[in-house]
Amino acid sequence: MFLDDESLAENLSEIEYIVEELEINSSYEIVVTARAQNTYKTKATITYLTTSNDYSVHPEISVPETKLITPESQYFEGQLIVTFSEELNNFEIREWVAVSYEIANYSTNVSSVYSNVLSQENYNSLATDKTDYFLIEDNGVVYQLN
Fold first, then answer.
1. CATH 1.10.10: does it fit domain 56-145?
2. Is this model's pTM higher than 0.85 or not?
């Protein structure tokens, strides 16, 4: 069995084989070559595979609280505040996405992040959609937190 011209396995006697450690959002060509034992005839089957953008959910770290502060509020007006179940020094935030835009500028404290003041458009999108996620790295593995 070959994955993008790299040999993965030889002399397989099982029909099922699990391919591990594929890159997220990538395309691969898988070539499986079968050989009959008595005639030594071979047949190759080519399959194309594209992985998705999904990341695993962290087994321990979560987001217990998210607050979208109204623009009229006296404190933290128009900001998004997210609290994690762990201290931020235990993992690295790689990306913060709200609806369809990345929040690149934010402040942190022990276990929370605070966006800068959101534009009216971004605030309205988030108030309507209420979708945000983080990509975090913990011990060299990237996870998605929703």
1. no
2. no
